[in-house]
């Protein structure tokens, strides 16, 4: 494969979105380690499965948005390889199938380890990864994407990672799992706010289209701040103030928030990347706090 083709497929996989897949696995694994139940193969399986599902979902979005005519020439977001004519729709479709198949293969071991709960989590994650932009009533087209992202990139991902290693679950883990979920919602909000005009013309009724820019900016602000309220709650209720370590991110959070409130259109791509990095480092700081 030539370097140019490799670069094109890297574009298609959208690597800047992968922290959203890795962060919940990191947090869930930190809780498992703290419970003296870290399981290396389960951790690696959960991480690879999450990454393959994220890549598969990105490819599905690329393919289905093109087929539905939602990716227009005036698109402001990162390059979509199908719409840009870099890869044929059929090739992107097959790449999507391969990514989800790899996730399924990784999931076989996780199911062996964790049983029926992992079957449910894995199959629903793949199903909703396709239905986010595919099918007759795509989740992302009717304003339900935010709920899906909060649940599956939050408590489901963190709880599933913890469960497959410890074979148990706790309320503390599920509550902590809401934090990466809200960060991922914030990433989605930036995406929808950037594309609000083109989505409106394409009939894509995201929450930004339904309720407007002011609503989306409030939603983003809350989605960015709630994770810090969560760690304060966990620190106080568990009398473990090491969990407050993510608060060191509050200064960059307010800079990113300012950028979101003052930027429009294509510059929001920078805010999108910044929000992804906030999520990733939040997961690192929280994990360190859990392990201390």
Keywords, separated by commas or semicolons:
292 residues; Farnesyl Diphosphate Synthase; 75% helix; mainly alpha
Question: What is the name of the CATH architecture?
Answer: Orthogonal Bundle
DSSP summary: helix tally = 12
How far apart are the termini?
A: 45 Å
Give the number of domains: 1
Using the coordinates above, name the CATH class.
Mainly Alpha
Number of strands: 0
Major sheet description = none
Run of helices and strands: HHHHHHHHHHHH
Describe this structure in words.
- This protein is mainly α and 292 residues long.
- The chain has one domain (3-291): Farnesyl Diphosphate Synthase (Orthogonal Bundle).
- It has 12 helices and no strands.
- It has helices at residues 3-13, 18-34, 40-67, 89-114, 116-131, 145-152, 155-166, 171-194, 196-202, 207-238, 250-262, 268-291.
- It is globular.
Secondary-structure map with pairings?
Elements: H1 3-13, H2 18-34, H3 40-67, H4 89-114, H5 116-131, H6 145-152, H7 155-166, H8 171-194, H9 196-202, H10 207-238, H11 250-262, H12 268-291
Put the structure in a nutshell.
With 292 residues, this protein is mostly helical.
């Amino acid at each position: 494969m030539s370097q140019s083709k490799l670069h094109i497929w890297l574009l298609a996989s959208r690597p800047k979105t992968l922290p959203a897949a890795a962060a919940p696995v990191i947090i869930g694994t930190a809780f498992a380690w703290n419970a003296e139940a870290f399981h290396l193969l389960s951790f690696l399986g959960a991480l690879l499965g999450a990454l393959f599902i994220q890549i598969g979902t990105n490819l599905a979005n690329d393919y289905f948005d093109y087929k539905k005519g939602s990716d227009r020439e005036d698109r402001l977001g990162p390059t979509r390889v199908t719409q840009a004519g870099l890869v044929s729709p059929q090739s992107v479709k097959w790449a999507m199938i391969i990514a989800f198949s790899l996730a399924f293969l990784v999931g076989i071991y996780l199911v062996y380890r964790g049983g029926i709960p992992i079957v449910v989590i894995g199959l629903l994650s793949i199903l909703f990864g396709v239905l986010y932009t595919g099918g007759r009533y795509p989740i992302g087209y009717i304003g339900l994407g935010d709920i899906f992202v909060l649940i599956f990139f939050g408590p489901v991902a963190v709880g599933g990672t913890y469960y497959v290693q410890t074979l148990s679950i706790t309320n503390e883990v599920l509550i902590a799992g809401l934090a990466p979920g809200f960060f991922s919602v914030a990433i989605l909000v930036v995406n929808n706010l950037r594309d609000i005009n083109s989505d409106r013309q394409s009939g894509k009724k995201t929450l930004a289209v339904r309720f407007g820019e002011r609503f989306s900016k409030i939603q983003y602000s809350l989605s960015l701040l709630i994770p810090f309220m969560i760690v304060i709650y966990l620190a106080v209720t568990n009398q473990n103030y090491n969990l407050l370590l993510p608060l060191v991110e509050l200064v960059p959070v307010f800079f990113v928030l300012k950028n979101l409130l003052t930027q429009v259109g294509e510059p929001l791509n920078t805010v999108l990347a910044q929000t992804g990095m906030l999520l990733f480092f939040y997961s690192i700081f929280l994990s360190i706090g859990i392990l201390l």
